[in-house]
């Protein structure tokens, strides 16, 4: 079975520019221009940046601490003193939203970036060595995929003693999601890496005696950059949704730690009595995951030379 060489999408745009006499633009500028012409993707980026600013700078705007109880305003709606209202115990929801959003974003970024890096190294290593080494690594990968991650999360984050008493719950959940979040991407990267192994620059590096790990890091990983960027945004979204789902059913982050999943789970039973406790974190989650999805779609179109949804990023000679 022969493997077809997959051309770099951005190189196609550069070659077309050279053939038509246009000024050649760098790969990065082409991608940025195509992304910035996609209004939906730019809107997603703006929303994501605003949410990140809210989760970091919001601590300087809040009037109450997340643990402070206002006994004179228990279960009250949004007001001048409590912008997002208070919980049934009298805690300020705005302060808890700042903390919860920051925790969810932090988990998403760590898991998304870490899982993408692990998948890139593991998948490219399988593609480079091939043969028996690839079969062993693929067997390990398939074995890990069959392990029920929800059971591991429940064991690690529940019960007393051990790691749970010494490490914050969100850190434990981040580690578990990181362990199980890279496997699907690694299989995809392996397939693409196998096609890159037939390229001339890889064969030349092998002929010159370049160490295998250096070939993987300097030649294979950079040439699947577009896939890694898309996997990064998907990984962040997956981690945030997983955190919300696990915390919602009570096996993820638990009180006193706060996250979007914790806030949504705690307010579900009181949605009719305290609707603001449910809708504020739920809307924040929709904006967060929705902005990431819009960014992912924009990046996919920016890396795709056949996409016409954002026009052409060419600069004509004067």
UniProtKB/TrEMBL annotation:
Report if keyword Cell membrane is assigned: yes
Q: Which Pfam families match?
A: BPD_transp_1, OppC_N
Which of UniProt's keywords are assigned here? Answer: Cell inner membrane, Cell membrane, Membrane, Peptide transport, Protein transport, Transmembrane, Transmembrane helix, Transport
Start and end of every ABC transmembrane type-1 domain? 105-296
Q: Where are the transmembrane segments?
A: 41-61, 105-129, 136-157, 169-189, 273-292
Cite the InterPro entries for this sequence: BP-dependent_transpt_permease, MetI-like, MetI-like_sf, OppC_N
GO annotation, biological process = peptide transport; protein transport; transmembrane transport
Q: Which CDD domains match?
A: TM_PBP2
Its membrane topology is listed as: Multi-pass membrane protein
Residues making up the signal peptide according to the UniProt record: none
The record's subcellular locations are: Cell inner membrane; Cell membrane
| Alphabetized PROSITE patterns for the sequence | ABC_TM1
Q: Name one GO cellular component term.
A: plasma membrane
Q: Which PANTHER family match?
A: OLIGOPEPTIDE TRANSPORT SYSTEM PERMEASE PROTEIN APPC, OLIGOPEPTIDE TRANSPORT SYSTEM PERMEASE PROTEIN OPPC
Q: Which family does it belong to?
A: Belongs to the binding-protein-dependent transport system permease family. OppBC subfamily.
Which protein, by its recorded name, is this?
Oligopeptide transport system permease protein OppC
């Amino acid at each position: 079975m022969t493997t077809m060489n997959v051309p770099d999408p951005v190189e196609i745009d550069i070659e077309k520019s050279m053939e038509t006499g246009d000024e050649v633009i760098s790969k990065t500028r082409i991608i940025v221009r195509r992304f910035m012409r996609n209004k939906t993707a730019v809107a997603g980026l703006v929303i994501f940046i605003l949410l990140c600013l809210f989760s970091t700078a919001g601590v300087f705007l809040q009037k109450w601490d997340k643990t402070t109880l206002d006994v004179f305003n228990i279960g009250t709606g949004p007001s001048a003193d409590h912008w997002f209202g208070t919980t049934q115990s009298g805690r300020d929801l705005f302060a808890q939203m700042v903390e919860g959003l920051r925790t969810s974003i932090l988990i998403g970024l760590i898991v998304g970036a870490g899982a993408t890096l692990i998948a890139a190294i593991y998948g490219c290593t399988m593609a480079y060595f091939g043969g028996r080494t690839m079969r062993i690594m693929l067997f390990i990968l398939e074995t890990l995929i069959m392990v029920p991650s929800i059971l591991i999360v429940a064991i690690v984050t529940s019960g007393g003693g051990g790691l749970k008493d010494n490490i914050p719950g969100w850190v434990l959940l981040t580690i578990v999601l990181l362990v199980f979040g890279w496997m699907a991407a690694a299989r995809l990267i392996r397939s693409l890496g196998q096609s890159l192994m037939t390229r001339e620059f890889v064969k030349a590096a092998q002929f010159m005696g370049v160490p295998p790990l250096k070939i993987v890091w300097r030649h294979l990983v950079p040439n699947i950059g577009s896939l890694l960027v898309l996997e990064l945004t998907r990984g962040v979204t997956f981690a945030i949704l997983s955190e919300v789902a696990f915390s919602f059913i009570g096996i993820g982050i638990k009180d006193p730690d706060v996250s979007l999943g914790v806030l949504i789970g705690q307010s579900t039973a009181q949605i009719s009595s305290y609707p603001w406790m449910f809708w504020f974190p739920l809307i924040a989650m929709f904006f967060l995951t929705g902005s990431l999805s819009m960014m992912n779609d924009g990046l996919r179109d920016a890396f795709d030379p056949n996409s016409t949804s954002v026009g052409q990023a060419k600069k004509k000679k004067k």
